[in-house]
Amino acid sequence: MQPIGRTSRLLCTLQQQVAKTGFGLTRQLHGISEGAQAPSIQRPIGSNRRVAPAAGTVGTLNWPQSQQLRAVNPFPSTIQAWMMDFGSNNPLEILDVQRSVFAAPIRTDIIHRAVTYERNLLRQGTHSARTRSEVRGSTRKIQPQKGTGGARHGTRRAPQFVGGGKAHGPKSRSHEIGIQRKVWLMALRSVLSAKYAQDQLIFVDNMNIESHRTGDLNRVLQ
Q1: pLDDT for the residue 56
Q2: pTM score > 0.70 for this model?
């Protein structure tokens, strides 16, 4: 047998101690408390490299704590507009109005839905056509079923005859359709944003006029 050197004896002693204490020696080398869980990636002895701790444990090593990231809007929350005098149409001051209302994305499809909803509310829905059971006439069979050489007919009130009823004609009904409240508000913001972008939106301080005459109001509005 060859004599065992000092380095070999030191390695054997280290292996025996690790076998007895398990992860205890590694905890001592890395400075980990007894209650903490072992890291998923161990840091080499004498190294300052940052390593991640195991999942579900508190970082006992020099691992940076996670921070919550928040998106920052580069645009201001308000835009500027002139306040005009209602009588003279002269600018008075500059207002700060909400960007979310007067500079929102212009959605023409949402505007179409809102306009269709509003126009359907204006329809009376009183249209009605008489069917074959409502027109005036007899229910007698106008000709025999066989022997005439022509088509088979029953009552004179059928839709194919002049003065007969209307097949699948309109009836009185409501044309109202549903729309979500948020969709309607989005359409309103889109219209206001479009008018603001086209310089067709006027902000006034009040609507007081000196006279009650319609001609004076028409002159101011023009």
Answers
A1: 53
A2: no
